[in-house]
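Example 9 (inverse folding). The structure is encoded as follows.
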């Protein structure tokens, strides 16, 4: 009996040591063992959005012009042929009129305060393109047209002012500075030769 035990150990140890290695479990075996398991496809990259596109920075000058209310005024409108004048829109509280008009080589001291009249079906007034008449304050234009043979009555100053008949205009953009010259405060011209003031019409 004592000899059988060493003999068994002598036979069993080589058998264990020389046995072939067990096969490893491959991914194919895993798929065969679990047929319901499916491979997950790689995640697709999201499509490029507009945010990924290159954004061009706007030019500062164009941004500034776009913020101006008068930027909505056409650059050119009506009949722009013939004699021209430089005009600057001027707003004076409690005073009628459009602004100042002068020739190219004249100074603003020589400019004439005018009431502006458009030409039907040819050229309306520039501020009619804007939400409010005051939106083109201190804006300059090149006017094409003539002075009317009549004048308009200014009730606040009790006087008559020249009328410019506008046939066309070109927008010159915002003025470099405001014209700090008050409009006429007293009559600088005679009574309209085609009409008379209302108080005079009431006279017997």
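The amino acid assigned to each position is listed next.
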């Amino acid at each position: 009996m004592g000899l059988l035990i060493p003999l068994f150990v002598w036979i069993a140890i080589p058998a264990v040591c020389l046995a072939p290695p067990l096969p490893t479990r491959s991914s194919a075996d895993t798929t065969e063992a679990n047929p319901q398991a499916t491979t997950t496809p790689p995640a697709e990259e999201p499509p490029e959005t507009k945010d990924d596109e290159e954004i061009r920075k706007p030019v500062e000058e164009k941004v500034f012009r776009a913020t101006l209310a008068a930027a909505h005024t056409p650059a050119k409108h009506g009949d722009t042929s013939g004699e021209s004048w430089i005009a600057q829109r001027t707003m004076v509280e409690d005073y009628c009129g459009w602004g100042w008009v002068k020739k190219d080589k004249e100074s603003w001291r020589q400019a004439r305060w005018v009431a502006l009249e458009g030409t039907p079906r040819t050229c309306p007034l520039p501020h009619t393109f804007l939400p409010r008449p005051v939106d083109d304050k201190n804006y300059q234009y090149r006017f094409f047209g003539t002075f009317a043979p009549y004048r308009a009555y200014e009730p606040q100053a009790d006087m008559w002012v020249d009328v410019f008949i506008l046939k066309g205009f070109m927008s010159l953009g915002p003025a470099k500075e405001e014209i700090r010259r008050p409009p006429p405060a007293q009559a600088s011209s005679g009574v309209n030769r085609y009409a008379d003031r209302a108080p005079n019409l009431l006279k017997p």
